[in-house]
Each structure stands twice: as C-alpha cells, then as structure tokens.
Amino acid sequence: MIKVLLNGYYRSGSSILWYIMRESNKSLVHVYEPLSPDVDPYIPGSLHGSAIGKAIVEEYAKIDREKYIEIKRSLIGLNNYFLPTSLEQVKPMLDFLNEYECTVQPNNFHFILRDVAKKYGCMTVHLIRNPLDTWIATLPIDPSIKHLHGWKDRLIYICAWAGFKVLPKQTLNVLARSRINRGYYLLGEFEQIKHLFDADVRDYLDMRLYLWTLCNYHACDQADIVISYESLVRSPKRVLRFLERETGIRFNPIPLKRYITNNPALEKEIKKRIERMGLGEYFKELELRWVL
C-alpha cells in the first residue's frame, strides 16, 4: 500500500526530501515521479546528482519494471500525464504501485491530493518554495545545477547574477521574455489550466508564476501536511522530526545546502506581477507558508 505521497511544484525541494525518506526507510519502495517522461527506470539521471540518480533506478528495480513501463505508456497519449486534474487520469499507475509497501513522489498531483488520500488511505505531504527561487531554479541560472553548465549556460549565469545585483528589475524583465523559461513543461501545463483563472499573462515568467500560484494554492488546500523548502533547509532537524511524528516513517537528517536568493528588489517585482495578474489573494495565503 502507498504510505506517503510527497508532492511539490517543480524545483521546490521534493527530490532531496524523497532522498532523505528513501535513505531512512530501506524496507519500503520509494517511487520517484512515476509519470514523468524524464524518468527512466533503468538509466540514472544527472539533474539532482549521481546519488539521487542511482537511488531512483535502485528503487525501480524493486518493482515490476516492465509492467510499470506498460502502464506508463498506456497513459501517455490518453491523458495529460504532466499535470493531472482528476484521479482517473493516474489511477492505473497508483493501483499498480499500491500493491507495494511504498512511498510515491509524483511532483505534480496538486489538484488531486485529496482524492488520492481518500482512495488509497495515504498521508499526503506538500512542499512549497518561494516563487522567486522556484523560478530561478527552473532556469540555467540555478546555482544548484552549475555542475551541468556548458559555456553558454555559464555565460547566462554570470550575466544574470551580475544584473540582479546592479539592475534587478531590468534583468528580471529581460529574462522573463527569454526562451530559457520554457523548461519543466511550461507551455503545455499553462495551456492545460489557463482557463481556471482569467489572468493578465504577458510573458514566460507570468506563465510560471500563474502555474506556481494555482498549483501551490490547490495543493496547500488539499494536503495533510504542508512544509516549506525554506524551513527544511534552515531547520532540518525540527522539520524532519515533525514529519516523522505525523507520517509514522523515519526522516534521518543529512547535511542540506541552502539556495535562498534574499533579494528584496526581485521579490518585490515577483509579487507585483502576481498581483497584476489578479492572483494577489492567493499569494497572501501562500506567502505565510514560507515566511513563518
């Protein structure tokens, strides 16, 4: 049975929390992003480092990988498997995983957490990160992925961070229109849920902030537990003890790096954009999650 479902918008820290959970509970199966087209059950990825990439493949080796691949392929082309908005879209995969004593990190079940918890009796945990650092982490200017940079990305990285210090607003507005924003399924997911709110979306950054706001709002409303990336990296022992107490499984602390920008000028511009799109009330509720 599925014991814990760990959810989070992209680049919010759910991968490192999944790794902590996996290292602390070796008797369970820990399934990582089972419906992501970027996850191969046989080949380790490199985005989160070799340790996590290796761990993902080792966990998939504990289940029937061929049946898993068959189910995954049956869902691709039938549903939008990036951002499900109903339980039925992902039920065949969850029914299969529910045969194992496992945890699942789907990364995108924001709109169906309540239905998943009711159907499978699992605890749902959502991880939220402030919108500025979430956006930065989807770009090649993310400090945590410098090990993956080629020379072009290194140049973008240097120019962007220099610009943030000298001309923060202008630099943000230039980056907001750049095609480098189009990762993490930005266009497809925006098209899927743009009807939920009539927002004044003008560029790629607006799309990302629209998705960040609505996905986190719905997930925070539905999850059993909500924690922030900021609290996790600042007070890992306290947060992990809380998770142990609430979920009933272990979370052994490991050293965590902090990637928090702390740039008031950029934070102000991000907030202004969200408010201009008419999402200010949603933002007020979400802001408490990482500030407190």
Topology:
Blueprint: E1 2-8, H1 14-24, E2 29-32, H2 50-60, H3 65-75, H4 91-97, E3 102-105, H5 113-120, E4 123-128, H6 131-137, H7 151-166, H8 168-176, H9 186-193, H10 204-222, E5 225-228, H11 229-234, H12 236-247, H13 264-276, H14 280-291
Parallel strand pairs: 1-3, 1-4, 2-3, 4-5
Commentary on this structure:
The protein has about 290 residues and is an alpha/beta fold. It folds into 2 domains: about 1-130 and about 225-245, Rossmann fold (3-Layer(aba) Sandwich); about 130-210 and about 260-290, no CATH class. The chain is built from 14 helices and 5 strands. It has helices at about 15-25, 50-60, 65-75, 90-95, 115-120, 130-135, 150-165, 170-175, 185-195, 205-220, 230-235, 235-245, 265-275, 280-290, and strands at about 1-10, 30, 100-105, 125-130, 225-230. It has a 5-stranded parallel β-sheet with strand order 2-3-1-4-5, sandwiched between helices. Helix 7 (about 150-165) packs across helix 8 (about 170-175) and helix 9 packs across helix 10 (about 205-220). The mean pLDDT is about 95.
Q: What can be said about this structure in brief?
A:
Helix content is 51%, strand content 9%.
